Amino acid sequence: xxxxxxxxxxxxxxxxxxxxxxxxxxxxxxxxxxxxxxxxxxxxxxxxxxxxxxxxxxxxxxxxxxxxxxxxxxxxxxxxxxxxxxxxxxxxxxxxxxxxxxxxxxxxxxxxxxxxxxxxxxxxxxxxxxxxxxxxxxxxxxxxxxxxxxxxxxxxx
Length: 157
Fold this sequence. Notes:
This is VOC family protein. Residues 3-118 form the PhnB-like domain. With 157 residues, the chain is of the alpha/beta class. 34% of the residues lie in helices and 28% in strands. It has helices at residues 14-24, 84-96, 120-128, 130-140, 148-156, and strands at residues 6-10, 29-35, 48-55, 58-64, 76-81, 100-101, 106-108, 114-119.
């Protein structure tokens, strides 16, 4: 286990979520699946308790902690993309697998975890400052999934 690992709380589907992430994002994998050695408030002995996984190179564990804790946008995975095809692929995988669209490149997977599918073109435009950043920002504010061509056109003015 890595020295610093992100722990993501799930109701009961940590293994399914980890397997989806591993199938969707490069440099992702499912590691150990640890089963409960005894009964606990929201499960029983033998249930999957913890799943070690990696998402785009980031070590994580999924904890099947029950329904008490719900995800919100205070935590999200941000995936940088290089092309519209890559942006579309990740967005469509998350939203098309029972997820939900949000604004400005944000979406949620079917387990309620928030994702930012962020083209590098958007990050570069916002980092440029001045009018370029303002125009790109204004364009982004009208979008759900980010349209790279529209961001680049707005940046140019």
